[in-house]
Design goal:
With 197 residues, the chain is an alpha+beta fold. The chain contains six helices and nine strands. The chain has helices spanning 2-33, 37-62, 112-120, 122-125, 177-184, 189-196, and strands at 66-67, 70-71, 78-81, 88-94, 101-106, 132-137, 140-148, 155-163, 166-172. A hairpin with a 2-residue loop joins strand 1 and strand 2. The longest helix is centred in the N-terminal third of the chain and has 32 residues, at 2-33.
């Protein structure tokens, strides 16, 4: 019964978003035909938001429900669309207590250029103190950064992987480098890259 409810809810959500998309498309055509370019542009931006939200929800469905022993907190899942600086923002957390992880995916991220610069110059990407290094996640280059909590002395890791203009960020608290690399490998980066292109 629960699966049936989720399936019906999913279809209803998609149907409502399709109606919004079609409504915005009709508004854009009407405004454009009338020579009202400002309203046509606004309606088209709303259509792009609708598409970004649908893509974000597809990506959430691709993300793993568990990362090792860390279960996804799906009630905290969040997808937002913005036509300003960023496109779609996707957020999922894993685990509770001290050992947690989170995935954040930002479309049109302004940080992609700086990450790509780090990846293109190897001596910058790999720091001499071991706090930053270039890694590969399912064939995609990324940057792994380590920080140490000064109060608990526990290591935290951030893995950032640019996918065209989208930035995938995995943050893991209370971990080690091998675990961070393994958890990053559980993310379906190739499938996500196809959706954000």
């Amino acid at each position: 019964m629960k699966k049936l409810f989720i399936l019906i809810f999913s279809f209803a959500t998609v149907a409502l978003q399709a109606q919004d998309f079609n409504k915005n498309l009709a508004s854009a055509r009407t405004a454009y035909s009338a020579g009202n370019l400002e309203d046509a542009r606004f309606a088209m931006q709303q259509m792009m938001n609708d598409i970004d939200l649908l893509v974000g929800k597809e990506i959430l469905n691709l993300l793993p429900t568990k990362m090792d022993a860390l279960s996804a907190n799906t009630k905290e899942d969040n997808v937002t669309a913005n036509t300003g600086l960023a496109g779609v923002l996707i957020h999922r957390t894993y685990g509770t207590g001290e050992k947690t992880a989170q995935i954040d995916i930002m479309g049109n991220s302004p940080l992609v250029a700086s990450i790509n610069a780090i990846l293109s110059i190897p001596f910058i990407g790999n720091s001499s103190d071991g706090t930053q290094k270039v890694i590969k996640v399912q064939g995609y280059k990324g940057v792994m950064q380590k920080s140490v909590n000064t109060e608990t002395n526990k290591e935290n890791f951030t893995v950032q992987v640019p996918l065209n203009s989208t930035l995938l960020t995995l943050t893991i608290n209370d971990s080690n480098e091998a675990d961070a690399q393994r958890l990053a490998g559980t993310i379906p980066v190739t499938e996500i890259a196809k959706l954000v292109q």
